[in-house]
UniProtKB/TrEMBL annotation:
GO terms for cellular component: membrane. This is HAMP domain-containing protein. The chain crosses the membrane at residues 12-33, 211-234. It holds the Pfam family Tll0287-like.
Amino acid sequence: MQVPGIRRTVSRILAMVFCLGLLAGLGGFYLLLQDRALRQAASEARILLRSALAIRGYTADHIFPKISRLPDGEFHAETVPSYAAQTVFRMVASDYGAYTYREPALNPTSSADLATPFEVELLQRFRADPALQELSGVRPTETDRLFYLARPIRITQEGCLSCHSTPARAPPAMLAKYGTGGGFGWEMNEVVAAQVLTVPVTQGLKGSLELVGVLGLGLAVIFGLAYVALVLALDRMVIRPLGALSRAADAASQSGDPRLGLPRAGAGEIRRLAESIDRLRISLGKAMGRLGREPAARPESGD
């Protein structure tokens, strides 16, 4: 079995280290950018949700009291906080389709607010855990990836039940507009709906991937240059001098000429090795010379 040389062994080690370092660096950088994109989406979603809450509060505190005094006897949907918040948000987000704000319900007054299967899951989790105040995450759609932020809507005021307890208590104008098919049977402290806001994150995640690609290309170039430089330096300072030293030592061992010196080239360690081998060869030659003369001198001393 052929033993691999220094060049091949070191080259393999360097290539392995560079590849592992590149993968680890790119993976960590991608996770960092992805986390940053999601945190930015969450911050944006909370700001938009706070805006929706402000619209709901303004509608309930200022619009409803004034409109309810009108003597026309009609039902004005604009006085409903949910309707006002969703309508304003749709107007603001009309140019940004992936931004949505809904208040879905399992038993809504308007069929437009009927929960989708995904929203049903959110509502069921809120209803199952009264302490749960917020849900968030990323969900894929057919065309985009959306960050969603959801909060429960709980009945905490008796005034809500005047329209949503039984059809008999609801205003006739409301029944004329929406009918009696939904939006009734609500109870105090019950989670009847949820605020669900979505923010697109596809572009942010795509941008993170593009940055990782640019970084990967840059690191690959840097690692490649470092690899070539290290291999060339190793070849010049270690491998070639060792090869020359090996050939010279082999020639010197076969010739026996003490004047045949070893090359002094390469790194300092290689030069000191050559000097040590040279001194060892000279000392060994002298010792062998003395041993060669001793047999001839011993018979004379015996006579």
